[in-house]
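Hi U.,

Before I forget, here's the chain from the pilot set. I'm dumping it here mostly so it's searchable later in email.
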Amino acid sequence: MTRMDIYKKSLDLHKKLKGKIKIVSKKSVKTRNDLSLLYTPGVAGISLEIAKNIQSARDLTIKGNSVAVVSDGSAVLGLGDIGPEASLPVMEGKCLLFKEFAGVDAFPIVLGTKDVEEIVQTVKNISPGFGGINLEDISAPRCFEIEESLQNIGIPVFHDDQYGTAIVILAALTNALQVVGKNLKNVKVVIMGAGAAGIATAKILEVRELVLVDSKGVVTKNRRDLNKYKGEIVMRPYYSSASNIEEAFKNADVFIGVSGKGRLEPSFIGLMNKKPIIFALSNPNPEILPEAAKKVGAAVVATGRSDFPNQINNVLAFPGVFRGLLDKKAKKVTEKMKLAAATSLAKMVRKPTPEEILPSPLNKNVAKEVAKAILKS
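Structure:
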């Protein structure tokens, strides 16, 4: 099926459904007694209980199982800045996946502003009604500022484009390295793309050598155009001294692309060490197609697409992460939790092969295992 066929069928389906999610009552109102218990006067007792102990809202209301999926529509999928209304079907889809895979009640919240302070204040203001906040499709570097400013609001705030991606990449890389007989701490990694996903992945990986490449070339310590977040990465002790693209790829073991269509030249793979690992994750068009990467020696290839083996998809992370956070009644997401989620995800593939380094995105046991890891961490 071509992409245009999928677009047409999806459009027809959405016209029929008029949205993918709805609110359903947990208890029917059939008698006066039902009305008294579920609304007035009985509900006043619930409100008084919460007024005495705010934390009880997690047990007595939807708050304990609810997540707000918040976006300003500025960095939607591979579509870019298309605005809040156009982002709504994507946010609805995210909410559907929360429910399908983890039983979480998620609500799409699209905002008509790109101002960092306005977004931060809006999220703070709505946070009493939710057990967690999933930031989604907000452009960099504003997404970093927004997430940082919301870390102490009493409920966990998780930017999925950053850390959902990073968790799944780390899990996939753990198993890919097992396939080729290498160790994470002894490899050189090139990350192409220095937006939300690229920076978060750079943060979560502890390797022998790391190189970051953005739209202007290799990110070096002497560049004067680096934002705060790129600047923090280049100051890490294992950051590379490479000054150009050839040096970046020379003797590299892993390529992680979150940049754009066709950005990885096959000749660059030829500069890498034997048995290179190629994660070409731009969607829908990867940095290099798997067949082309394998022709020049790639040992393991992953993409973000479902029509190739080894799909790196955030749905393997965020439903289980939030299921665990809500069950744990967590107030924030810690680095330990992120690493635990990645480890549990990797372990779900008992014997990794070049064609299978991650469980299927449709495997609903994944969310349960990731949630367990969050609870234990």
